[in-house]
Amino acid sequence: MNVISDLELQQIRTQMLTFAQLQVNQADLAEDLVQEAFLSAFKNLDNFKHQSAFKTWIFAILKNKIIDYLRQKGRFVLESELEDEDTNNSFFDEKGYWKPEHYPSELQGEEETVYSDEFWLIFETCLTCLPAKQAKIFMMREFLDLSSEEICQETHLTSSNLHTTLYRARLQLQNCLSKKTLGEIMRCRQATRMISESHERSLDIQEKVGLKVHLAMCSRCRRFQRNCKTLSMMMKKFKDSH
């Protein structure tokens, strides 16, 4: 543990919170589960053999905490909650072929590939910008390592509905990563416009991803975003005083 800095621990904790909130949809509960995972890790620190990274080890503890909670409380997503998430049609034309703007690009996924911090930021952003219920099912399969049979049993999904949900999630995730890793990073002018428009309408998934990635790297646009919120607050106070 002495080789892990406070900053690294905080980054790991933030990532754990993001994942836990995705699964339980409650900030306070996610905080409790992450806290329990850290307490369990420190109590069992002697069992950490350094055969894997500390992050991998403590995430495994969190995964088990979440699985235990969901099974105990029956809080897995239900089939009826997924009926309105038919998003895959936008990727294909009326004949069922890929639309040119959605052609898949090759994602470098070999085990030996070393990804940059920027790539992992984009990956996490794309993941968290999936429709919440799709993301939950996808993470149960790919991160919690539950089998298809286990997910169907715990969620009361049919195998057909599960396969459809995973298909939609993979379509959107690879599309998001293809676009963002090809260099389509939002510039400040576009980002500030998106910030302004977010006060007037709901941004689509690509806009949310692009804006989130840009804001993570641009302090000036983060300041602009805060100022927009402040302006709205000031106008409300101005209206109330007149």
What layout of secondary structure does this protein have?
Layout: H1 6-24, H2 27-43, H3 54-73, H4 117-128, H5 132-142, H6 148-155, H7 159-181, H8 188-197, H9 205-217, H10 219-240
Helix pairs in contact: 1-2, 1-3, 2-3, 4-7, 4-9, 5-7, 8-9, 8-10, 9-10
Keywords: DNA-binding, Sigma factor, Transcription, Transcription regulation
Domain RNA polymerase sigma factor 70 region 4 type: 122-173
GO molecular function: DNA binding; sigma factor activity
Gist?
This protein has 242 residues and is mainly alpha-helical.
**Unreliable segments (pLDDT under 50, ≥5 consecutive)?**
78-85, 110-114
Structural class: mainly alpha
Major sheet summary line: none
**How big is the Rg?**
20 Å
Examine the secondary-structure arrangement and name the CATH architecture of the largest domain. Up-down Bundle
Overall structural domain count = 2
Helical coverage, percent range: 55-70%
Tell me the β content. under 5%
CATH topology of the largest domain: Butyryl-CoA Dehydrogenase, subunit A, domain 3
Overall geometric form: globular
Protein name: RNA polymerase sigma factor
Domain RNA polymerase sigma factor 70 region 4 type: 122-173
Domain RNA polymerase sigma-70 region: 17-75
Organism: Haemophilus influenzae
